[in-house]
Design goal:
Structural class: mainly alpha
Number of helices: 4
Helix content: 40-55%
Shape: elongated
Strand content: under 5%
Oligomer: single chain
Order of helices and strands: HHHH
Radius of gyration: 16 Å
Distance between the termini: 46 Å
């Protein structure tokens, strides 16, 4: 929360995660804190959700061939 508060309205924040946004509340744990963090992040965000097979999995398949 301190990092988000410090950057909010002052500059860009890049967040990457392998965890779907729907699970963030569960991971953050405290509902009020999760609401505050997500409110600040999501309000003016551009969300990119990548789908598809893992590049690591693909690379391992190519190496095995």
């Amino acid at each position: 929360m301190e990092i988000i508060e410090d950057r909010h309205g002052k500059g860009s924040i890049i967040v990457t995660s392998q965890v779907p946004v729907s699970k963030w509340y569960e991971i953050i744990g405290e509902k009020t804190m999760a609401d505050a963090i997500l409110d600040r992040i999501i309000h003016q965000s551009h969300r990119l959700e990548l789908k598809g097979e893992s590049m690591r999995k693909r690379a391992n398949q190519i190496i095995k061939q």
